Amino acid sequence: MNPYLSAFVLSVPMVVAAPYVAAETHPAQAQMQQNIDAVLKIARNGSLSEAQKVKQIEQYADRYLDYERISALAVGAPWREFSATQKTEFIRAFKDMIIAMYSHSALIGAADAQVRLLPKMTVNGNKFDVFSELHTKKGTKYEVAYQLYKVGPVYKIYNIRVDGTSLVTVYRNQFGELIKQKGIDGTIATVKAKGLKKQ
């Protein structure tokens, strides 16, 4: 997994391509600007330890990331076979694994990055793609697309793509193989033990 993707995690059925629209004042983009600013402020706070930064970003992200939908999309079709208890256990384990594996590199990347929202977005019913451009300290540039849907006044993130690499698909092949080899409970145990390969 690209570390800059995970930086904003700590910060899908196929749809018909929607036209780009101006987004300077759209509420989805305004919220994403607020989210990015909040994550970067925490990452750059020199008075906090790394553990404190991770905890604060995690608590902030909990309000805006739909971990259930992210998990369902990452697992794919086998998600329908999970019981309610298995789904709950998997969601918690998947979130904990991602944070443990990528928090350090994510904080470094977020602290050094320059991010700007792009004046475009796609709209498809209640789904919105908001785009940003991330520049690293080394001069590398990435386009980050946040996929959201609206729940009341809040736009929930259900996927993030960095230069076309999707959060919900980077582990799907591993989950598919694990479920075939170890079953659902064995897969959950592997995720709890952080036993997946780092992407």
UniProtKB/TrEMBL annotation:
Residues 1-22 form the signal peptide. It comes from the Bacteria. Keywords: Signal. This is ABC transporter substrate-binding protein.
